[in-house]
């Protein structure tokens, strides 16, 4: 596959990968079994647990983050199981489709796109529907640029003894997520966003409470590949030679992931989270100072994805085209309800960096002005630089 | 992930990957959507169809070949569906587990390990059980080194209007498989054997007959990720921007796959199949001439995996250890019923090559002799070289 041109990925995923991680994939293929592999696998799982801030069981599912989402749904949704599904963005509907595909009964709670999930609505819905057993939540809503208050929602789920499936696809590794402390029963992400690895792995943790729930089901967990009980059975039976589960492991992606994990842990999680906060803050400040309206209130704005409203009278597609053609920077449109109206910038992992933020900010303003706007570049950059200047990082 | 040592993979998978394909993965990550991606995806699918010798729909499932196996089972196995499951080797039991996990009723036919599936047993079983709707078949049995007569079995399935799920995991791209001409309804493999790519993709074709079967089911296909109807729905709906299905595509593995496909098509399928025949023949001739007993009769012996019986009084593990330590060549033990008694050599794609065959043959004899055997190296090499010499290739 020849890459005809490479645009730098300031999109909500996949994101840029460090050259060292890319090169790790070019190593000769190794077998996914035997003593060496057992060592490699445990090493990577241990590092993953640090990033997930968890002592729960961790699995690497060959596939996408959707595979991990579905394995969680399949684990705890039986025919008729009532599931609270929050609908605050595009991929929430994926959870809905998955729950329905396992004949779960969806209890939806809808929010305006750009608004977070309101914990009090979760509380009142669970209170009014005591038969709800499971909730799905997207922590960081890629389609809107909102970060949901997962900690508070998890607390409420615990009060109501509800299993929480929390999708952290675009936040894990970039935003502080305390899987165990918060009580996220299933917590999953892909490897291609803040985990800064080329896509192909679903990373997921499973709590003790979730295991008990699975063991106490009335009907068996469906299927084989996306079945955690089956996965655990093989992991245990084959622990001494094939410890990751029953299927072939995508070893090249593991290799890249380990490099990425090493870099993340060397940076230190706390530093990393602060970096994401700061760069997001600078971008928001810059856009705002230029006269561009942000789509999300600062209180809920994601630190890995920034969304803004396309200035009046300008075609968002043309903004993106100019950025690609003249800056080689790719930003993203928005889906569904907000298509055409909102643009999205990803700044995750590698691209949560001053150089990328400043280049993207400048490019956006340049493109808007080229299309007829009169945005103030100087003010924008000044505001962004002030943010950096006044930071202690 | 640091590779502590690299042993050349003469195992039944994963297998060696060409440096060009490895390096293709080190390219910057590209997005799995948009015009460029639509072009790349169709290009790869078209090349895959050539290797599969099919006009059927082709899917690339992010995950392992087991994901593709399960998607096929899930597509056509409803609760109570009777499924003929041939049990002639280790991974046949995976199909059995999968069918059972979808509440299918397994009608097993067992064969001695090392023996092929006998078409007349398939015929008589289908004849005696007219309610059987589906059959699972492993074309090339990795655990035993047998190639099953898929063409004849497919013919019988057609006569009885049975859907055939044919696993070609360790043969596709190395052994001539005429998906359409033979009538394989689902034909799947991983990308890590004769397809000579680092693992992580399930490649699978779906026949028109299989689609009709899915559409006429009484109960819906289960789940979302491994659900071909769902996959097809998204492929169609999103064809102009996200054509491969609803989830993130492992673009780096696609890149390696395309390089591998290009090399396969440049070589020419017919040349490629002949190469696999010749190298397998040379290895078998050499082992036999050395005085080592082959596990499988020449009539059914696989051209991608050769199995032989560990010489009396010698520990197979020690043979493997010497090969690894002194030759840096990794061969494999055998599972389950034949563990300890049989060793397996993979020669797929890249390693179906004279140099690898001769080095491995020599190494095996060296190891056996070091452990006390008195095998004739000269005769072995002479027999292998005679095979090459008398070939027209």
Automatic annotation (TrEMBL), chains A, B:
Keyword Transferase set for record: yes
Gene Ontology annotations of biological process type: glycine biosynthetic process, by transamination of glyoxylate
UniProt keyword annotations, A-Z: Aminotransferase, Pyridoxal phosphate, Transferase
Species this chain originates from: Aerophobetes bacterium
Binding-site positions, substrate: 344
PANTHER family reported in the protein's UniProt record: ALANINE--GLYOXYLATE AMINOTRANSFERASE, AMINOTRANSFERASE CLASS V
GO molecular function, one term: alanine-glyoxylate transaminase activity
Entry annotated with the keyword GTP-binding: no
InterPro entries: Aminotrans_V_dom, PyrdxlP-dep_Trfase, PyrdxlP-dep_Trfase_major, PyrdxlP-dep_Trfase_small, SP_NH2Trfase/AEP_transaminase
Protein name: Alanine--glyoxylate aminotransferase family protein
